[in-house]
Amino acid sequence: MVNRMTTFQPLRRPARPPQKVGRRGAARWRRAVIAWWLLLASAGVDAQVPPQLPAGGAALVMTPQTPVDLPVPVTVSAAFDPPTVRPGEKTFYRVTVDSATASVQWPEQISAPTELKFGPAAHGQIARAQNNQLHLLSSLVCAVRPTGAGRFTVSNGTVNVAGRMVNIPAASLEMGTNAPFRPPARQLWLETSATNLFQGQSFRVRVWLPARMGNQIEALRELQFNGGGLITDKTTLRQTGETLTVDGQPRTALLCEIMATPMATGPLTFSAQGFSAGSEFIGPVIFRGPVSFPGGPANYVLHVSDPMTLNVRPLPAAGELPGFTGAIGSFSNPPPQLAAHRLRVGEPVHLQLAFYGEDGQPRHLALVPPTTRDWQMIADQPPGNGFTLIPQTDESKATPAIPFCYFDPTKAKYVDLSIPALPVTVLGESLPVQLATTDAETPTAPPLKLSGLAPTPGHSMASLTPLQLQGWFVGVQLLPVAGFLALWQWDRRRRFLEAHPELVRRRQARRALRREWPKLRRAIAAADTPAFVQHAVTAMKIAVAPQYPANPQALVCADVLAQLAGAEPGDSTAEAVRKLFAAADAQFSKSAPAPAGLLELQADLTAALLKLEEKL
Amino acid sequence: MATGAAAAPDAFFTQGIALNQAGQLPEAAAAYQKSLAIRPAAGTLVNLGITEWQSGHAGAAILAWEQARGMDPFDARAIANLAFARAVTQVNAPELKWFETASTWLPANAWVWLAGAGLWLGVGMLTLPAFFRRRKTSGQQALAALGFGIFLLGLTANVGVVSRAEIGFVLKRNAPLLLTPTHTGEVISTLTAGEAVRRVRVRGDYYFIRTANEAGWIQRDQLGLLFSAPTAPLKTARPSP
Predict the structure, then answer these.
(1) CB–CB of B66/B228 below 8 Å?
(2) Cβ contacts of B52 within 8 Å, gap of 6 or more
(3) φ, ψ at B63 (rounded to 5°)
(4) Distances in Å between the alpha carbon of A558 and those of A541, A545, A551, B87, B150?
(5) Which of B10, B19, B54, B55 best tests the A interface by mutation, with the highest count of A CBs <10 A?
(6) Is the ipTM above a cut-off of 0.90?
(7) Pick among 3.30.300.30, 1.25.40.10, 3.30.980.10, 3.40.50.1980: CATH of B2-93+165-225
(8) Which pLDDT value is given to residue B169?
């Protein structure tokens, strides 16, 4: 038995066919020339050098960051402000640490005598630049109301600062009816433009920082609001120094106004806090009335306000109109202005929109453009309210209507303020009216171009649809066919009558007899015997003429009697015929008078004529 | 009354020229449409085509000029404008069969009258002498032969006219050619404005058409038939980028 084993051999590159020495040498020579040229070309190329900064430029690029002073050890201070109160008065327990708030872990609870009722704690941080260093200051403040008289001490506690426990010094508060009068501790006053609001309705918040003794107005920094569900727009902050009346006494204070918006519903409690910062005002401040500013370095003190509760209602779902984007308030808008009412496809046109609030100030409202295939709509950059419209088709006769509505909190309903569609004329894209000839064979050929307008309507038709495609025309084609059929029938009839002349004679006799009947009746009515006789004889001759055939004028009484089948000599009809013919013959005689009583033969005559007519 | 009715198309025609010269192209097109609705005329169609061309509606312009040429095959303006428009838009003229080509030699209505006259001339020359008991002369027989010859020629041309009635022109630029007669139908390809197609059948708002290379469905309002009166101003759409 033969054991067959398969062995795998490595693939070998097939041997190149031998090349001629001359071709190989030429390739080497070509590569050498290329390499030589590359070397020569690179000789004139310099390495790229990064752009060099001028002398001192690095200092312009690198802005030195102010170093933060982190004192070691950390200094903590605690005190009541004021340290003595009368019954019912309020004081503030304030702890200050010269470190960053992020590194301070304030205690959850402050161990204090039970007679001291601590309110919610507020804490903040402020930075002070001094000696080219930033000094951070963190502060905690609580409103405290003692419930009993006596001296109370908040014992030493600890605060965790950057992982190290630092002692809080003890602070004492004395409450008694005999305590010396002190002005109440300074605190922030909080005021809002409305307390009954809808969700999303912006309102104005006023925070007052009363002046220090001596009418010295201090700056208020790091203003913030505690309590969730409220957002503020710090770009609307306005600061003024004003004099207001508190408890009948004029008080000077720094007023900070800011716009806030409730985002949650239900009762919303919030308070304000901020640091009094001496004369370190930030931003423009308007002062009204006589004020003074404290001198020397600022003494940063964290102040809080009493909490305030807002009643925030959700927006009603019923009655919401299309285009509601959350705008709440009362707005008005002038009619929209379109830059052009006649445009081409693809040509942008600007739609100018403007909205004004109750105060007459322009407002930016986010309008959502409708989705349409006919227009491309690009909203203006805020605070612009307009749109850039680009028509996509010339089928558009008007700009798209932009639905918009706002919620009016005073009326508690939605108000439609949609932008109506504006009529426009959109032309299609322009096409060339002349085409330059590019035919090289006939360079002198005139260029193809659009002709001028036709001065006259020219050849016209009743309809663009050809006659071949109109149903009535096919019907009209049947008329000649019918005419030819009628002509053919007429010819057949004519030939038939030519083959049967008796039919023609009888028809002619009937026609002539019908003409004689009225004449007979008129003669009878007029009692005109000669006329009666003449028409009676003529009628009888006409009636019997086709039977022979003969000309009626050639017939006599016997011919008539012969056609009256069964006429006997004594028959009254035959007798009447004879009398009538006799009377007719007698009329040729001038002397012969017309026999009387012939008119009485009319009954017999009628019977004879009817009998003869039956044979026709 | 008749004078007023006759003057109305001319008044609209004149108004269209004035509006066109004033640059009010849509209004001019509307005036021409009104004139055409009362009494179609080749010159009105030529001017309507020029207005549509100036408005950017190449398809509508080509359709109007084709209709003008169908009404008056010797209208030089229509012929020149068609050549110009097809050179610009790079679309071909419709491919005609031989009898359709013959039908373009004269106005469409002329063929039907010519065929009718030829037929009844031949029939009359053969039958009337017999009816009137006249002897058929060689001249009458020659006239009958001529009449029947004209009838046969006119008959083929009339067939051509009827056949050309299915020729249409794409009105909108990049009009979609659909696989099915539904608005969600798959788009086979897009057609150029002014492209000549043949209508094969109708279903609802769609025509089944055949182009030089393919067949599919197209919406009715995107196709203008050669012998159909335009009922509304013809529009085109800007292609989506």
Answers:
(1) no
(2) B29, B58, B60, B61, B64, B234
(3) -60, -45
(4) 11, 12, 15, 101, 67
(5) B55
(6) no
(7) 1.25.40.10
(8) 95
